[in-house]
Amino acid sequence: MIAIGSDHGGFELKQEVIKYLEANKIEYKDYGCYDQNSVDYPDFAKQVCQAIVDKECEKGILICGTGIGISMAANKVKGIRAALCHDCFSAKATREHNDANVLALGGRIVGVELALMIVDIFLSTEFSNDERHIRRINKIEID
């Protein structure tokens, strides 16, 4: 199950990602927002991240205007490793090396086609389980 959320700046791209998830029969839960009225991105980052921490969902996708603020908010939650990705290489590398469990996107930065490629790579790439990556991840976890 994928947790997905956005603020008003990421709402349009979130609708496209939802279409992609549905077309690929990937289960998801939408934590809002539900229209383009102005909202605060930390509220949605917290809901998506809590669903992952509570093991309701395996991974999350968060979208705001730039992806910056919502990724910063997500990374304040213990157990969350959110990666802001605007290219395919970063999406693959953050899954293989960082075991990122949240993908952050900028709805005003990336086009729909690139965003969907990034989502596809993020969701289909497995963590490497290399000892060096596990060691590094353990060093960045919040106490």
Automatic annotation (TrEMBL):
Belongs to the LacAB/RpiB family. Its EC number is 5.3.1.6. GO terms for molecular function: ribose-5-phosphate isomerase activity. D-ribulose 5-phosphate binds at D7, H8, G65, T66, G67, I68, G69, N98, R108, R132, R136. The active site is at C64 (proton acceptor), H97 (proton donor). InterPro entries: RpiB (IPR004785), RpiB_LacA_LacB (IPR003500), RpiB_LacA_LacB_sf (IPR036569). GO terms for biological process: D-allose catabolic process; pentose-phosphate shunt, non-oxidative branch. Keywords: Isomerase. The keyword Nucleotide-binding does not apply. This is Ribose 5-phosphate isomerase B. It holds the Pfam family LacAB_rpiB. Gene3D superfamilies: Sugar-phosphate isomerase, RpiB/LacA/LacB (3.40.1400.10).
